[in-house]
Design a protein that fits this description.
By secondary structure, the chain is an alpha+beta fold. The chain contains seven helices and 16 strands. It has three domains: 68 residues, Structural Genomics Hypothetical 15.5 Kd Protein In mrcA-pckA Intergenic Region, Chain A (Roll), CATH 3.10.290; 82 residues, 2-Layer Sandwich (Pseudouridine synthase); 127 residues, Pseudouridine synthase. The strands form three sheets. Strands 6, 7, 8, 9, 10, 13, 14, 15 and 16 form a nine-stranded mixed beta sheet that branches.
Length: 319
């Protein structure tokens, strides 16, 4: 997927996607956009296949070029705000920030302030524009209630090189998660495609027939009576990937109110956890200019550490 400018996305249809309706194809490939929003764009002639406007029933062929326009909201501007940042690494080319939980990465309608982008704009005047006016510098994403490391690019060239590393899976992303249940083996791999949920368009789900390739590796690092602390290595970067994969195999992330179950939510309450137990703890990538291996780690967020200590205390009392 390429962005021709801040308002346009260019997609090339592969063989596996041939025969799909254009609206279904776009809902699978533009994970943050709902089917209804995509259909509105099609109706407004904002979607073109091989330079021609199409209707929502159009079926694609391999090699088709799909152009989607106006994927940003008009009249929504981003203002710099003086908000504290936890900068883990910085040079003249990029920033690596430890994002707090409850902080949204970039503005959206109804949420134009107090985002990570607002804070970064105040701190740094020079940011890349590749991702558009609402996402200056943003190379990849973290969910609102996921804490941890995120990379910010200071110019377009750095952004493109880092984005290519993510796209070609050369960036190692490791998370720490507390999940429900005990595993029969200490290491494992979840290899299941992910797409938008048919039941709730705001959520993602495992979708064997129309999902996108997704791989999650994990290793148990601490075991409790009813849950497990795991390190998770993302081989792909699908929306909500960790949360969806672990929910599907019966081990939802503790505190996850979208994908959790009754037991995982109840346990979160017992240990004083007010959000999903998910922290982006390590990023390994090649610096685009210095050409050296960057290994950046972030200690687990304070609220998660406090919940872990409460959990350990409960376990001792039971013994």
């Amino acid at each position: 997927m390429d962005k021709k400018d801040s308002n346009t996305i260019d997609l090339k249809v592969d063989v596996a996607s041939a025969g799909q309706r254009i609206d279904k194809y776009l809902s699978n490939n533009l994970e943050e956009k709902s089917r209804s929003y995509i259909q509105k764009l099609i109706k407004q002639a904002k979607v073109k296949v091989n330079s021609q406007s199409v209707n929502k029933n159009y079926r694609l062929s391999a090699g088709d070029e799909v152009i989607v326009e106006s994927l940003v909201f008009k009249n929504l501007s981003v203002k710099p705000q003086k908000i504290g940042l936890n900068i883990v690494y910085e040079d003249e080319y990029l920033l690596v920030i430890s994002k707090k939980a409850a902080v949204v990465v970039h503005p959206s309608p109804g949420h134009s302030e107090d985002t990570l982008v607002n804070a970064v704009l105040y701190y740094c005047n020079n940011l890349s524009s590749v991702a558009g006016d609402l996402r200056p510098g943003i190379v990849h994403r973290l969910d609102k209630d996921t804490s941890g490391l995120i990379i910010i690019a200071k110019n377009d060239n750095i952004h493109r090189q880092l984005s290519n590393q993510f796209k070609t899976r050369k960036v190692k992303k490791t998370y720490t998660a507390l999940v429900w249940g005990i595993f029969s083996e200490k290491k494992g791999e979840i290899r299941l495609p992910i797409g938008r949920s048919r039941l709730d368009r705001k959520k993602m789900s495992v979708s064997l027939d129309r999902g996108r390739y997704a791989v999650t590796e994990f290793e148990v690092i601490e075991e409790f009576k009813k849950c497990s602390l795991v390190n998770v290595n993302l081989k792909t970067g699908r929306t909500h990937q960790i949360r969806v994969h672990f929910r599907y195999i019966g081990h939802p992330v503790i505190g996850d109110r979208e994908y959790g179950n009754k037991q995982s939510i109840n346990l979160a309450s017992k240990i004083g956890l007010n959000r999903q137990f998910l922290h982006a703890k390590e990023l390994i990538f090649i610096h685009p200019v210095l050409n050296k291996k960057m290994e950046i780690e972030d200690k687990i967020a304070e609220d998660l550490q406090e919940s872990l200590e409460k959990l350990r205390g409960i376990e001792k009392m039971i013994k």
